[in-house]
Amino acid sequence: MAPPAYRDRVRYVEAGGVRLSVIGLGTWQFGSRAWGYGADYALGEARAITRRALELGINVVDTAEAYARGRSEKIVGRAVAPDREHAFLATKFTPLVPTPNVVERHAAASAFRLGVSTIDLYQLHWPNPLYPLARTMDGFRRVLDSGLAAHVGLSNCSLETWWEAEAQLGRPLLSNQVRYNLLDRRPEEAMLSWAAAKGRVVIAYSPLAQGVLSGRYRPGRRPGGLRALSPAGSDEGLRRVQPVVAALEAVGHRYGATPSQVALAWTVRAGGVVAIPGASSVAQLEQNAAAADLVLDEEDDARLDAASRAFVPLRAGPAALAGSVSGLARNALADRLGRGPTAG
Ligand SMILES: NC(=O)c1ccc[n+]([C@@H]2O[C@H](COP(=O)([O-])OP(=O)(O)OC[C@H]3O[C@@H](n4cnc5c(N)ncnc54)[C@H](OP(=O)(O)O)[C@@H]3O)[C@@H](O)[C@H]2O)c1
């Protein structure tokens, strides 16, 4: 079969009065030396990826103040400027000192770097267990009331924390951005169904398991940069993923789709999920956008489900550590050059 045709407009989910493309764009890679994409990527390809995403109807563009120390926000802001009204800009607050004043100040700084007066979605990057969530939510309320953000959300929070945050804020938090892919299905336990029932959105980060699900990496052919640090990027980690990649390839053959496209289609198969894959090229972005059109049937779902349930992750331990030594060395070098790995 021919590859899925690109459409002018991808599929959308509607929640909280907004319309979000089921496939968004993650931009942790923009300007980040930890991903190892080089200066040309930050100066040129990143903008081209963002522009093409908007052309294809992708409106969700996710960044964070932590990504390359604000550089990702700047690259995104400049690329989006000519089509601001077609973008839904999501950024994240780094909660090292999450007092209300700091939240407000950081939101203003993010808006400045993005070149906007209102951030579409301002997210708490992760919960800070050392500081009362209620106070942080006071800051998020101020950000909403001052018009610095149109919506607020969370990231890396449990469902219980989502409930608590909403109680403290006294309003809905539109979304929670969590790791969700065929190798990590924890959001399925309760979060996805609650979010779909209540008109909230689960934003799936690392939907391709940082490229591992693309099938490009195998034992002996490992990714570089920060990915070499994770157990999943070691030879043993990659060996364990191969049956899942084989299932993605087999399903993809039915549609003329790539493993990445199948992995993305699987991630957004339930209502109320938006996947935000990063991309190292415009071609990847185009493929990812087209995945919004791919609808898997029950047979596909069963095949992927079986492979993913049989997957046993490699936990951090001696084997993973040994496999990560070369990656550590590479990142140490990146650190020395000026910028170390940034938060995800
Ligand atoms: N909230 C959080 O704590 C958190 C954490 C992590 C990420 N995020 C967000 O989520 C976004 C996505 O997550 P991620 O970047 O960690 O992982 P990801 O989206 O699973 O993987 C992105 C990588 O996969 C490869 N790829 C993308 N499309 C492909 C395609 N069509 N075919 C083959 N390979 C493809 C590219 O790497 P190569 O081409 O180099 O292989 C790309 O850089 C981030 O950019 C960030 O915005 C948030």
Structural description of this entry:
The protein has 344 residues and is of the alpha/beta class. Helix content is 42%, strand content 13%. The protein contains 11 helices and 10 strands. It has an 8-stranded parallel β-sheet with strand order 3-4-5-6-7-8-9-10. A two-stranded antiparallel ribbon has the order 1-2. Strand 1 and strand 2 form a beta hairpin. Helix 1 (38-55) crosses helix 2. The two termini are 36 Å apart. The structure holds NADP nicotinamide-adenine-dinucleotide phosphate (NAP). The site of NADP nicotinamide-adenine-dinucleotide phosphate has 29 residues, from helix 9.
Write the layout of secondary structure elements.
Elements: E1 12-15, E2 18-21, E3 25-26, H1 38-55, E4 60-62, H2 71-80, E5 88-93, H3 100-114, E6 119-124, H4 133-145, E7 149-155, H5 159-169, E8 175-179, H6 191-198, E9 201-205, H7 235-255, H8 259-267, E10 273-275, H9 282-290, H10 298-310, H11 318-336
Parallel strand pairs: 3-4, 4-5, 5-6, 6-7, 7-8, 8-9, 9-10
Antiparallel strand pairs: 1-2
Bound molecules: NADP nicotinamide-adenine-dinucleotide phosphate.
* Secondary-structure arrangement, i.e. CATH architecture: Alpha-Beta Barrel
The fourth-level CATH homologous superfamily is NADP-dependent oxidoreductase domain
CATH class descriptor name: Alpha Beta
Report the total helices: 11
